[in-house]
Specification:
The protein is built from 3 helices and 4 strands; from the N terminus they run H-E-E-E-H-E-H. It is an alpha+beta fold. 35% of the residues lie in helices and 22% in strands.
């Protein structure tokens, strides 16, 4: 689980990222990101009912995305708010390794993941 300070929770913060954020797509995931004035990154994860009607399936996908972000936390450049959005279709069949690959590609594309 992500530490509380790394979670993007407030509705206005999430709305700002969704409206003003730069968007990138990789496989079944979309990443919207925007700069913040903090010395750490914050993340949110969206899995809609279009992905699956079952809450347990949506939560499992959300947990996989969260874990993929958490294991790379020490390599992130500070100062970004990001939202991962799961697209309907193929994401339900993805395993943790494939989701981790997509997450890493998106973070590299947006220059959030440092070397």
């Amino acid at each position: 689980m992500l530490a509380a300070k790394h979670r993007l929770r407030k509705k206005k913060d999430i709305g700002q990222v969704l409206e003003e954020g730069k968007s990138s797509k990789e496989g079944p995931l979309v990443l919207k990101t925007i700069k913040n004035d903090l010395d750490f990154c914050r993340f949110a994860f969206i899995v809609s009912r279009k992905v699956s009607k079952k809450a347990s399936t949506r939560n499992k996908i959300r947990r996989k995305m969260r874990e993929a972000v958490r294991v790379r936390m020490k390599n992130y450049k500070p100062g970004f708010d990001s939202i991962f959005i799961a697209l309907p279709g193929k994401i339900r069949k993805e395993n943790l390794h494939e989701i981790e690959g997509c997450v890493e590609q998106l973070l590299r594309k947006n220059k959030i993941l440092g070397q």
